[in-house]
Automatic annotation (TrEMBL):
Residues 27-100 form the H15 domain. SUPFAM superfamilies: Winged helix' DNA-binding domain (SSF46785). GO terms for cellular component: nucleosome; nucleus. This is Histone H1. Its main location: nucleus. InterPro entries: H1/H5 (IPR005819), Histone_H1/H5_H15 (IPR005818), WH-like_DNA-bd_sf (IPR036388), WH_DNA-bd_sf (IPR036390). Belongs to the histone H1/H5 family. Residues 1-13 have a biased composition (Low complexity). It comes from Hippocampus comes. Keywords: Acetylation, Chromosome, DNA-binding, Nucleus. CDD domains: H15. Residues 1-27, 89-118 are annotated as: Disordered. It is found in: Nucleus.
Amino acid sequence: MAEVAPAPATPAKTTKKKASKPAKKRVGPSISELIVKAVAASKERNGVSLASLKKSLVASGYDVDKNRYRVKIAVVGLVNKGTLVQTKGTGASGSFKMNKKAEGKTKQLRRTNQQAPV
């Protein structure tokens, strides 16, 4: 009698979980901080246009071509927060300058935080 031996059972495939790489920490200031510095450094009476803002970011070493959308979102966010005032245009286009009222508030907050004992 010729019995057929059953085929050996194949071991169940184990899926190896890939070790997740730790997220790279950003080095340097955020885009919002760079924008605020660029606008504050400007001596223009009517503010800084988006094009000149991008030029100053490129001069400081930021890759604007790669992060074009982030620049727009950061500018709109700073306007909504009240850090920047939009003097011309709507959205991310137009000219922007520092909000003098917001500058006074941040200076007052820093003073009270430094004086308060922890």
